[in-house]
Amino acid sequence: MDIPVQIAVRLKPPNLEDSSQCIFSNPVTQIVITESGQTFHVNRALPVDCTQANLFNSFMIPQINCFLDGCDTSVVVFGQAKTGKTYTLFGPGFECIHSECDQGIVPRFLSEIFHKLNQMPEREFILHITWMQVVNNNIFDVLGAGLVRCCNVEEAFQYLQLGWRQRCQGNNHTVFTVSVEQKWVSTNGVLNHRMSTASFCDLAAYPEPGLFALENIIKELLAGNPPKQINYDQCILTAMLRDSFGGRAFTWVIGCISAEPEDYQDTLKTLNLCLCCRGIKNFVTVNLFADNNTPVYTEKSMLPHADNNFNLQFATTQWIKLVSNAEGLFNKILQSKSLSEADINQVSEWLFLKAECDECLNGDTGVDNKDANIKQGLPRIAEDTEPSEPSESDVDSDSEEDTHSDTVFQDKLEKFMEYFREKNDQLFADRCEEYLNHVDSDDITISELSGSQSLPVMTSQSNSGRRRTIQPGESLSGAELELLRKVAAKAISPESQKILIESHKKDVDPEPKLIERELLKMIDTPKTDEICKKYKMTKEKYTQKQILARKLSKEIGSSQSQLKELINLCIAKERLISDLSKSMSHTQNKHYSDKIESSLIDQDTMREIKRHETNLKTYKKQIEQIKRQIKKDEKRKNTLDVELVKDKLKLDELSDTSVDVKDRKTHSLKHFTHRITQLDSILKEKTNDLETLEMSKEKELLLRKEIKNLRKTRECLHEQRCSLGHKRKIYKSLSDSEVSIKSFDFHTL
Ligand SMILES: Nc1ncnc2c1ncn2[C@@H]1O[C@H](COP(=O)(O)OP(=O)(O)OP(=O)(O)O)[C@@H](O)[C@H]1O
């Protein structure tokens, strides 16, 4: 987002109360006006009596919010000497004698940042500060430790005190930075990972050369030159302020001016430079890490949604109840005839509207039911009803239905039934042949499964015609018998067969639930579930490793830039030390009178050199540490990369296997349909036998029992086929989503 550099002007209170003023500021119109009537429009024209707190609150709060959102911010203070630049940024000092209300922008900013971050416990953060000075185009590290980590406001204030004591006095530039890395998961389950830097720059007064370079850059930007074409590296100051002018920071420039008439010319210079800065636009962006915006919560995050649905459903039910109660009440009131005509009309209108709504809702319900039937799986197969023993109620209903239209209908029905039977027989014969020709070699027969202990009805020895367990005798062909045997062999395990035999011996119905359980065992192979589970687990691990690898790359990157910074610092330090040593050697050639003075200076310089050497040592140590860390991180990253490749292969393999299992499931679904059709035909034939053949009571009873058993088996097969179909649907949706995940992975990899 393009944000123009913002300008504030602060007037330093006059030294003497009765001294005359040549500059005035109007905080209402935000105009600074000179004695001669020249006006300067700024964003904040701060009055002479503006307190430190007022100054901070008038423009720093939006900057703090911006900083915590992950944007870089900058405050640059400039003006002639002794106009209160350092006072504005830091305050009068950090000794005990100084009151808290005199604190400048930097300590207030630090207090506010720690306060705000502590109010957001969900955010993890790391805060670092640096305090640099640019002395004669050389960098001087005020704290002597590069980046300094501060865990709380007390620690930060200790460093402020230390830096305040250690800083170089004189006309030089000071740059204080606060950088924060934050990580938090927002309520919508998204990971936020941001990094922002706030820089506070106290510029030297003219005629510092760096300041002229900065002025030139400001003029170039104002002339419309794109930042990319501007040479920021011409000096250390301009390189350090790259982001503040024409860069990514949200910048406030504070012009500190004196209202005294003798400073008038310098004040005009400062105000003119302020106006130039006003025309600069910075491109402010949120600094995101690569893992920013990644979803963190999994399916659990969907729970609130489910809750909402539940609440909605509950509210709807309650609402319907309320409306029907009201309807009853209105009807009663209408009947009591105690209402005026207008009220009756109103109530009638209400009842009419309610009836209209009911109509619409009932229409919808019809559609819903239809959908529900579709969702429940395959429609049930209509079956020929077994002619049962005539009961009294049947006789009654027969006599009642004896009408002409019924007769026509029955005639038509019989015609269609005949046609259906023919077609069905044909189909059955075809399928029978096909089935027997294509029965898989792994189709195990009962005798193979349980040795000699096989179902008496279903053994091939019983091809004397009938399934003798249930009904000895005629009607089934050898092929049909074989077929039924195979169907039973596929569907029922040896244990169930035993129970069936026992139940038959005792002439009791086998437990249908048991058959169902056995069938379930057969079709509900846990293999698919297992593979899916394994795939999901591997996938989860893979994603975690990917996140870790990205994090490591980021860390390596930031360590490398830290390393670069430190190396630059070392070079600058070494240069400074050699300059200082050179300046010392010059004193050797001086006269004796000067020599005493020179030796005193030398002692100071020596101390200075020692201090710098100690700093240099610390930097070098830090460099070694960072190098070691980078090596360690790179090793870990390499191992992770290898693991990621292996995991990817494993995922591909698992996905292929699951496709295999899916194919097998499709195949077994077809088998189920096929077996049900076969059982239907056998059942039809048996029912026909029962109707047409003359047989003894005992035989009839056994035949009925056989039909009943076959029906139960068919029922179980049918239910399991529905369940398998349903599972296939779920599996399909799962594998589809996996396909989309896979293609996504492919693109992100
Ligand atoms: N608004 C103010 N209210 C009270 N005292 C002030 C104000 N501004 C400056 N002072 C005082 O004026 C003196 C000079 O201020 P300061 O050192 O901040 O100026 P400066 O512009 O940073 O000077 P230099 O360019 O020499 O670094 C200090 O003693 C400071 O406390």
Automatic annotation (TrEMBL):
One term of GO molecular function:
microtubule motor activity
Q: Would the keyword Cytoplasm turn up in this protein's UniProt record?
A: yes
What's in the keyword line of the UniProt record?
A: ATP-binding, Coiled coil, Cytoplasm, Cytoskeleton, Motor protein, Nucleotide-binding
User: Which residue windows are coiled coil?
Assistant: 609-643
Q: Which residues form the Kinesin motor domain?
A: 4-280
User: Which Pfam families is this protein grouped with?
Assistant: Kinesin
Positions of region (Disordered): 379-405
Composition bias of kind Acidic residues appears in 384-401
State the GO CC annotations: microtubule associated complex
Q: Where in the cell is it found?
A: Cytoplasm, Cytoskeleton
Any one Gene Ontology biological process term? Answer: mitotic spindle organization
Q: Where do the annotations place ATP binding?
A: 79-86
The organism's superkingdom is given as: Eukaryota
List, alphabetically, the InterPro entries matched. Kinesin-like_fam, Kinesin_motor_dom, Kinesin_motor_dom_sf, P-loop_NTPase
The family line of this record is:
Belongs to the TRAFAC class myosin-kinesin ATPase superfamily. Kinesin family.
Q: What is this protein called?
A: Kinesin-like protein costa
